[in-house]
Amino acid sequence: MRERHPRWGPRKLRAWLNRNRPRTEWPSASTIGRILLRHGQIAPRRRSRRTPPYAQPFRTCLEPNAVWCADFKGWFRTGDGKRCEPLTVSDAHSRFVRACRVLPATTQASVRPVFEALFRNYGLPWAIRTDNGAPFASKALGGLSRLAVWWIKLGIIPERIDPGCPEQNGRHERFHRTLKEEVASPPRQSLFEQQQAFDRFCQEYNFDRPHEALDNRTPDQIYSPSPRPYPSRLPEIVYPDHLIIRKVRPSGRLHWHGKEHYISETLIGEPVAFEPIDDRYFQLYYGPIKIARYDEAKKKIIKPKHKKRKRC
Q1: What angle do CA 100, 103, 107 make, to 5 degrees?
Q2: Which CATH number goes with the domain that contains 163?
Q3: Best exposed site among 90, 111, 163, 187 by fewest CB in 10 Å?
Q4: Is the dihedral of CA 85, 91, 94, 98 positive or negative?
Q5: How far apart are CA 204 and CA 2, in angstroms?
Q6: Which residues are within 8 A (CB) of 289 and not within 5 positions of it... i.e. 6 or more apart?
Q7: What is the residue range of 266's domain?
Q8: How does residue 48 score in pLDDT terms, banded at 50, 70 and 90?
Q9: In this structure, what DSSP letter does residue 136 have?
Q10: Collapsed DSSP state (helix, strand, coil) of residue 179
């Protein structure tokens, strides 16, 4: 088993053997480790200093579909010189990999059909956690992209990690490292062969590979589809009655208190809500997302200031 899966440690091997060969009394993980070491199957490694986890008020991942994680794995070239940058989607709680797809481009037009298929097959998550790159985010107010606007209308909260802090999406980043080690080092000869390798790996990762974080169970033993179905018709944003609603015009602007204000071309045709904070300021929302403030005294929209964080 170690020769078939050279990156599986003693505990993972023992969990697989107990599940698939239950009638055999297998030795402890420490004994398995000594056997592998004796047979030259384990190379000693240096201990590395662990970085403490970064605290962020993201949605908790206590059940399947509470949070999905999405990203583009760092690109590489296949043997024929083609660029390969697969879109990956996983469930944060169960680690179940929903997608690992080679796409023609990292654009909203390429990404949205993948999510549509996932939503139809598995239902809707409550949140999707990504980095700040396109097509997940943009430089528009609130960092909203067209993909994020679509998610919000479906009742999905876009969660974005801080720039340069991949550990805030650590479970998904760990999957990327395993994916690279198993099927991208070295790369396959063509994109077609690389996709086949991704598919085989995800099948093993979801249904065969024990995960220590899951008490050595497999992701398919934990995951279950979402009870929230993908709607046949895209819902409209609904706001509480005390908010004042304005629709963004085709120019990307809206009319407020006798003046035109530029909002974003991303939100053309969408309703934006104003909530009074005090006699001077209003909070602007798109759905549940705070996108800006309005200063009544200066007749000006104020973009939120993002504090520069220390290195994560």
Answers
A1: 115
A2: 3.30.420.10
A3: 163
A4: negative
A5: 15
A6: 142, 144, 152, 157, 158
A7: 244-302
A8: very low
A9: T
A10: helix
Tell me the C-alpha distance between 144 and 191, whole Å: 31
Q: Identity (one letter) of the amino acid at 250?
A: P
| Confidence band, pLDDT 50/70/90 cuts, at residue 275 | very high
Q: Is residue 14 part of a domain?
A: yes
pTM of the model: 0.79
> Are residues 75 and 162 both part of a single domain?
yes
pLDDT tens-place string over residues 6-30 = 777 778 788 888 888 888 888 887 7
Residues 89 and 218 in one domain: yes
Clarify whether residues 23 and 94 are in a common domain. Answer: no
Q: Which of 188, 213, 2, 166 is nearest to 72 (CA)?
A: 166
Query: From residue 135, how far is each of 10, 174, 210 by CA, in Å?
Result: 40, 22, 33
Residue 74 lies in a domain: yes
Does residue 234 lie within any of the structural domains?
A: no
Q: Are residues 217 and 91 in the same domain?
A: yes
d(CA 133, CA 143): 10
Q: How far is residue 212's CA from residue 159's CA, in Å, rounded to a whole number? A: 26
CB contact set of 300 (below 8 Å; sequence gap of 6+): 294
Site of tokens 């797809």: 101
